[in-house]
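Morning!

As promised:
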Amino acid sequence: MGKKFCWVLWDSRDVLGRPSCNINNIFCFVFVGLLIVVVTSGYEGRDFQNTLPAKVVWGIPGKDIELPCDVTPPVPSDAVKMVFWFKDSTMPIYSLDARNVPLEKASHLAAAYDVGSSLDARNVPLEKASHLAAAYDVGSRSYFITDHPSRARLKIKNVTPEDEGIFRCRVDFLNSPTRNFQINLTLVELSSPPKIFDAEGKLIKSEAGPFLEGHELFLSCQVDGGRPRPSVTWWHKNAILDNVVDTKKNSFTTVNQLEIAQVPRSLKGAKLECRATSMDIAEDIVREVPIVVYLRPTKVKIVTPNELMSSAKTHTYKCETSGSYPPAKLTWQLNGRTITSAVITQEENESFSSSIISLTVDPEDDGKELVCKADNPRFPGGSLEDRRQVHVAYPPKVAVKVSGGAIPATEGVTVELRCDSIARPAAHNFSWYLDVSI
Ligand SMILES: *[C@@H]1O[C@H](CO)[C@@H](O)[C@H](O)[C@H]1NC(C)=O
Ligand SMILES: *[C@@H]1O[C@H](CO)[C@@H](O)[C@H](O)[C@H]1NC(C)=O
Ligand SMILES: *[C@@H]1O[C@H](CO)[C@@H](O)[C@H](O)[C@H]1NC(C)=O
């Protein structure tokens, strides 16, 4: 009989929209009893929903959510009598009954809760109050947590988009006026995953770049949709690079353009991140972009000691460079001319290159400049050089000159002969010979 009553009530109201009322008789009766209490208290009406500001609570589909309702009595001497939760309607989806009503009497409640009945003379503590939830959709997933009255909250499990809407919490006290709260439960809609574009507007599929050390880097991160509008930020190793969103508030696409005026060397091999953050409660949607940065060589040095070289012998010079990415190519120049004839052996790894040249010098090469040049072929202007003067040792070349008197000489006149020599190191022991072949 009770079940029938229940059906009739549900169907006639139609606001709950669920014809399949698969609840047991007792529940049904209790619920009907509550309805009567609610309706007869004469407090219901759409007016509330128009006048009360609704606090927006964001939920994530599939997750749990808590809707706050402060049930602290306005004065310490007072106590909560009943709490009702409504959703989009004047029919409660949930109630908390702190009146001292034994549950055994439940089946008689419909009759007991007659107009004007006052069963609230004695009250039970909140933790002992009886909970009643509508057995359909949101009610069946709800529980009202009252461990801390000021932070009492309706916990809804596994929220669905259908749960969105205006919830109202009505708190009836024994003596104080009824209190109402309105909560607008809105579900977070995640944005699209971030898309990264380069300065030419080309979609980056894997790595971005190459960028040149000391030059500009530009990347644009875009996400579509999302409610609330996501915030789009750029990160590197958990440090924020750019948190300024470059789009207008109401546009569908949210863009953050990352501009680094001078790419530091430290960004070589870095992975930048673009994060779309909808809310604190929802996880960020992250897109990682590895970037390629080319580096200038930082060091180049001819490491062979600068010793005197003997002419007509083969000497080796070694030059080393580091810091370049990709590794630098090393070339040798003597007096501004690239050496192509010599034997050059080159070694390199990730950032280090070395080159050994085998060079045969002539006396004419003495004092010329030997240059080792490190050049990053992928980096315009990315070159560095080390230079040194070569010193070539060679044997003396001599010439005899008349420095006083005249030749042919007249007998008895003094002539002075000078021996000039060019040698490196300079000759220091001169010997004169006459009519002797050495
Ligand atoms: C609920 O809040 C959302 C987000 O602020 C808003 O868009 C929506 O209009 C609100 N709904 C109602 C019925 O106030
Ligand atoms: C490259 O070679 C140099 C010299 O042999 C060495 O010191 C350096 O650690 C190497 N670097 C890498 C990345 O292999
Ligand atoms: C200079 O050369 C001569 C002939 O070779 C030699 O006898 C003499 O010892 C040398 N003197 C010195 C100071 O080296």
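The domain at 3-187 is CATH 2.60.40.10 (Immunoglobulin-like).

Hope this helps with the figure draft.
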